[in-house]
Amino acid sequence: MKFYRIFSLFLILVAQSTFVNASDDALVIYSGRSDKFVKPVVEAFTQKTGIKVILHSAKSTALLNKLRVEGERTEADLFLSNDAGSLQAGTEQHLFQSIPDELVSVIDPALRARDNSWVGLSARARVLVVNTGKKDVQNIDSVFDLAKPQLKGRIAITNSTNGSFIAGATVYMRASDKYSTQKWLKGLKENAEGQVFNKHSKVVKEVASGKKDIGLINHYYFYRHLEKEPNAPIRLILPDQGDKGMGIAWNVAGIAISKYSKKQEQAKALVSYLISIEGQKMFAEVNREYPTRKDVSAHPDIPPLNSYKTANVPMVDLFTYRSETIELIEKLGMP
Length: 335
Prior knowledge:
- By secondary structure, the protein is of the alpha/beta class.
- It folds into 2 domains: 3-123 and 252-300, 3-Layer(aba) Sandwich (D-Maltodextrin-Binding Protein, domain 2), CATH 3.40.190; 124-249 and 325-332, D-Maltodextrin-Binding Protein, domain 2.
- It is 41% helix and 15% strand.
- The chain has helices at 3-16, 35-49, 60-70, 84-92, 101-104, 163-175, 178-192, 200-209, 219-228, 264-274, 277-287, 317-320, 322-332; strands spanning 27-31, 53-57, 78-81, 96-97, 119-131, 155-156, 214-218, 234-237, 250-258, 290-291.
- Strands 1, 2, 3, 4, 5, 6, 7, 8, 9 and 10 form a 10-stranded mixed β-sheet that branches.
- Helix 6 crosses helix 7.
- The longest helix is centred in the N-terminal third of the chain and has 15 residues, at 35-49.
């Protein structure tokens, strides 16, 4: 049995064994995001409305399977994930209900499900972080450059089970081609020399310390590191720009209402708050993410959205081609 299938089975068992202690009046969110990214805005919602919220956190895949197995018995009112692929997987499994168009119409259709069964709340970009003292990496301009032989032993990446790694590879495969992505993955495997990291924050730390020269991360980890270490010798590179560049890979965190939620009106109220101007500003200010509402500006520290090109890959493709990406990763034996 392949590693990913074994890993998924383990997550299912963990999720099924977890009990949610929910009060009758509290909304329950099955959350595949770290609490630190969600709690500030959820707590603000409770303070504003009086509606309590319980975050039941685990891996998105495990929580989706938990929703599917529980069916009508589920206590979950909403599902939240940091990956559009996982959200679309729930749509394909008929685990969600459609959110009224008048509620989510402020969000770009490209950042929500076609049937409004989930909606994007915040977006992030896959970028490169380099150590400013390493002169020969300053002019790297593509994620594919990470596979060049001269970077052997000098790159920092997350392990290939990381959701953002899988989603990014899927975008690159759709924006370029399978052959180029396979060649890139092979080069990454060689250059990583078996050393990968379980968190993006560790990737940034390795580059900032000079142990590695360049890393592939979600953009907000760069700014979170600078908040703690403002003089860190690191610089952000926006890759794959210009006329021939495929653009930066994007992904969204989003939310869906459970098909069997018994608190639909309260759930809709939470979704409405999360995509309100107030809610979206919190994602921008607290997390340094990109709001999915066009009329809410990103934090001034991060690159303006109109300052770079993004890959022209619909968010739903992160599910449609996810299995193909995982099969390729498994075939190559990525760490």
